[in-house]
Design brief:
With 102 residues, the protein is mostly beta strands. The chain is 0% helix and 46% strand. It has one domain: SH3 type barrels (Roll). A six-stranded antiparallel beta sheet has the order 6-3-2-1-7-8, with no helix packed on it. A two-stranded antiparallel sheet has the order 4-5. 13% of the residues are buried.
Length: 102
């Protein structure tokens, strides 16, 4: 997967095109991500012990990972990632435009 949890992403297509949000959850097996504030759907919940009221709630639904692109907060652009190795041997993800660690 090209995105990870807590990454900032921009939605490329669909009803929420051009929205920026943070990745809340990643599902690599289904190739989907859940982004905060994107793909909001209404869900009917039955009353339970945790939620005594029940009713209609709004939740974020998963979208395909191919519809999002990593967003660099420093240069304010969408970017593909570049991998670089540090002197201690660790591998980091880097913005292709400004060389900022993501």
């Amino acid at each position: 997967m090209h995105v990870k949890k807590n990454d900032t992403v921009l939605v490329l297509s669909g009803k929420d095109k051009d929205k920026i949000g943070e990745v809340l959850k990643v599902n690599p097996k289904k190739n989907t991500v859940i982004v905060s504030g994107v793909n909001i759907v209404t869900k009917h919940k039955k009353p339970s012990r945790e939620n005594m009221q029940g009713g209609i709630i709004k939740v974020e639904a998963p979208i395909n990972a191919s519809k999002v692109m990593l967003y660099c907060n420093k240069c304010k652009k969408t970017t593909r990632i570049k991998h670089e190795f540090l002197n201690d041997g660790s591998k980091v993800r880097v913005c292709r435009h400004c060389s900022e660690n993501l």
